[in-house]
Amino acid sequence: MKKLILKIKNDFSTYEKLWMLAMVILAVGAGLIWPEEDSNGWSGTLLNVMCIFITIVGLFCELLFSKQRRSAFLIYNAVEVVTVAYYLMTKTQYFSMFAALIYWIPAHTLGYFAWNKHKDKRDKKITVIRRLKKWQTALIMISTVAITLIGGYLLAKYGPETDYYEGNETLQNVIAYLDSSLFVMAVIDGILMFCRSRDSWWTWHIFTAVDTVVRILSGQWVLLVYDIGYFTNTTYGNIKWTQYIKKNEALEKQEG
Fold first, then answer.
1. pTM for this structure?
2. Residue 38 CB: number of other CB atoms within 10 A?
3. Which of 30, 120, 160, 180 has the fewest CB within 10 Å, making it most exposed?
4. Whole-angstrom Cα distance, residue 187 to residue 144?
5. Are residues 94 and 179 in contact, defined by beta-carbon separation less than 8 angstroms?
6. 175-220, pLDDT tens digit by residue?
7. Average pLDDT over residues 97-120
8. Rounded to whole angstroms, how far apart are CA atoms 147 and 142?
9. Model confidence pLDDT, tens digit, residues 1-13
10. Cα atoms found within 13 Å of the Cα of residue 159, Cβ hemisphere only
11. Under a CB-based contact definition with an 8 Å cutoff, are residues 226 and 55 in contact?
12. % pLDDT > 90, the chain
């Protein structure tokens, strides 16, 4: 325990420790103030605990990603398993569920080994990162819009019914399109993160904005804390990765 405390003390900055503490307090507080209701025969208390777990552990992994740590990939798999269970129990966000089940878990596992091959030669704990070209960014944006519209239409038309939205068909259809966009952006972000691209943080900014809308419309207030954490840590990660790229490029010029 002493070794763990010492590692946390030395490995995380004051800002990072305070940020994580704030997220834990917000997640637990939101869970107590706005608890989940029973849905499809499942206890609201159980759903609430799952949301809090997803939020706290997921945000910790996001913090590790901002610090370019490979271990985030493996820890995130636990979050994905609980997320899949939550979506199955509430019968919601099927695209996001399939993304977690058939994409994120394999991607996180492979991502760990991919990052492990590109350790920074000056600090073996972190991974070397890079950035995309402009035409690649444009192609990603066009693809995202096209696939979102197709997926949203299919889910709105053929998706299963759920009492989670209390029979509000219009709301369920809106969520279907938003869920489709989240699925597409999640896949793209996963690829960018796998490739160690700084642009993954820009994708995650847009993802967070859409996910925030979904959480508000769905009344998932605990998971809304996740989005608060996403936004702040995405900004932090983008800044840190940008600083690293500039510093690394300058050092390579000096060495070259």
1. 0.77
2. 12
3. 160
4. 10
5. yes
6. 888 888 888 887 888 888 888 888 888 888 888 888 898 888 888 8
7. 87
8. 9
9. 566 566 666 788 8
10. 25
11. yes
12. 24
Q: What span, in angstroms and rounded, lies between the C-alpha atoms of 211 and 217? A: 10
The structure tokens 């763990």 sit at 4
Tokens standing for residue 156: 């709105």
CB atoms within 10 A of CB 88: 14
Place of tokens 């691209």: 197
pLDDT value at residue 164:
60
Asked if 242 and 198 touch (Cβ cutoff 8 Å), the reply is yes
